[in-house]
Amino acid sequence: YKRQARDGMVLNLGNYTQQIKVRAKALGSGGCDVENTIQGKPVTIVAPANAYSDWIGVGPSFLKAADETLGVSVKCDAGAIAQVQYHK
């Protein structure tokens, strides 16, 4: 399942062994840092301009169904779009 990520969204994880993955794309002409957090553990992606970064795992591996909250914080003025991928 892939969708646009936003700060504070709740991810309803299915009953699978999985890791949540995120990627981002800068809206300006330069790179942009985007911090993604699961269970208080941040992972920063350097989002390139005009293209999505590679998918990066964030948080622990989940072994069963869970509801997890995703934190997304864009650290540049121009902004960025983030996506999240997980199994429902």
What does this structure look like?
The protein has 88 residues and is mainly beta. It has strands spanning 2-4, 9-13, 18-26, 32-38, 41-47, 56-62, 66-74, 80-85. The strands form 2 sheets. It has a 4-stranded antiparallel sheet with strand order 1-8-3-6, with no helix packed on it. Strands 2-7-4-5 form a 4-stranded antiparallel sheet, with no helix packed on it. The radius of gyration is 13 Å and the shape is elongated. The mean pLDDT is 96.
Quick structural overview:
Helix content is about 0%, strand content about 60%.
Descriptive tags:
elongated; single chain; 88 residues; four-stranded antiparallel sheet; mainly beta
> How many strands, what sense, and barrel or not for the largest sheet?
4 strands, antiparallel
Mean pLDDT: 96
Uncertain spans: none
The end-to-end span amounts to 6 Å
Order of helices and strands: EEEEEEEE
Structural category is mainly beta
Query: Which shape, going by the Cα principal axes?
Result: elongated
Number of helices, where a helix is a run of at least 4 consecutive DSSP H or I residues: 0
How many beta-strand elements? 8
Instruction: Please report which band the strand proportion falls in: under 5%, 5-15%, 15-25%, 25-35%, 35-45% or over 45%.
Output: over 45%
